[in-house]
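ASSEMBLY PREDICTION REQUEST
Request ID: AP-0331
Submitted by: J.K., bench scientist
Number of chains: two
Total residues: 386
Priority: normal
Notes: Please return the full assembly, not individual chains.
Input sequences:
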Amino acid sequence: MCPMQSKENAEILLEYCARTLPTDTMARLDAHVAMCSSCQQELAAQRQLWSALDEFDAAELQITPDFDRRLYARIEAEGRDPFWVRAWRSVFVSGQPRPWRPAMTMALAGLATVALIFVQFPGSERTVAPGAPPVATISDEGATVEDAALKTATVDKLEIERLDTALEDLEMLQVLGTKTGVGTSNKL
Amino acid sequence: MSVAAAIEHDAQLMLRVREGDTASFAQLLDRHRVPVIHFVYRMIQNQAVAEELAQEVFLRVYRSRATYEPTAKFTTWLFRITTHLALNWIRDQKNERHQQSLDSEAPEGTAPLQVADHLPNVEQSMVRTARMEEIRRAILALPDKQRAAVTMHKYQEMDYSQIAGVLKCSESAVKSLLFRAYETLRMKLAHLNRGVSE
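STATUS: Completed
Returned structure:
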């Protein structure tokens, strides 16, 4: 088998067929092909393919006569758009490469994600360490900050009432002790 | 005019468009309207859509006038926009499953509408139409990038470096794409060649 039939060389043969190789390489291959029936067959097949592809020519395509008129109408219409629309188009829908566009897209996606999280979980910004006092720091999932403050105030009020009750109990014991002769006043 | 001079000329025209010279844009349109429409047509096989996408290409060129910098060949840039739009259209059609496949629309054995419409005489060119249909099917069946590479290489006569610039890949990748595409086409169209040689 001819070494020109390997994949790498077949690509060179393709270039040879297209006559796109340097002149000296073309001359050397001319000499080889003249002696090699395998390469001759390969080239004949490629030329036949190109001949067939030539038949598939778009030359018969009749371009619509008002192509230019429609294009200029679109250009004119775009010119009438508000400034911000034109600016948006020139940045995002133009032919010029914008190397920073992927970065901007990622930044916008990040902002959208943060906004989504904020909307989904508006009151869950506090976290509680294990063993921390529950009253002052815990806010139940989904509860607002106002709810937590209200709960704290209620608990504080209960504590004061309990302390008042204890003091009243002590005073009562003191009165009883005075009446029965048991010295309880030192304990207060 | 040499190729280098022509490239320079295109870039110069675009720079003049940047300065507000609309006549230069008209010149660019004159020079590249047909190649762009033909390229898109060969990619998607639908004239109306090809013209629509070509309009979008030139619209984008015009939009970019203020920021245009001749960092690459004008045609490389132009065909990058063109290929991008054509491949996006093909992808969208595949995704939406709305592709007006001529395979499904045209009954078996009939000529495809888009191709046959412009034949001067259908009766006299039935054989040619059938061959065209075979070729059209074979090209359409190629993977999108291979199809774009073949269209640029065979019909736009672009060199490997330019195709690589348009497809944003290496020259060796372009050679590989073309090699595989031509291999596939040769296998699929071998019977046409036998018909010719017999």
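REVIEWER COMMENTS: The mean pLDDT of chain A is 73.
SIGN-OFF: pending second reviewer
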